[in-house]
Amino acid sequence: MEPPVELLLRMGDNALVLGHRVSEWCGHAPVLEEDIALANVALDLIGQAQLWLGLAGELEGAGRSADDLAFLRDVWDFRNLLLVEQPNGDFGQTLMRQYLFDAWHVLQLQALTESTEARVGEIAEKALKEARYHLERSRSLVIGLGDGTPESHARMQGAVNRLWPYAGEMFLVDPIDEALIASGIAPLPRGLWANYHAEIQEIFSDATLTVPESGFAQRGGRSGERHSEHLGPMLAQMQWLQRAYPGATW
Amino acid sequence: MVGTLPSIDTVRAWLDEVPDPEIPVISVVDLGIVREIAWEGDTLVVSITPTYSGCPATSVIAMDIEAALRARGVEQIELRRRLSPAWTTDWLSEKGRANLEAYGIAPPSPAGAPDRCPLCGSSRVTRVSQFGSTPCKAHWRCEECRESFDYFKCL
Question: Which of B54, B130, B131 is closest, CB to CB, to A47?
Answer without folding.
Answer: B54
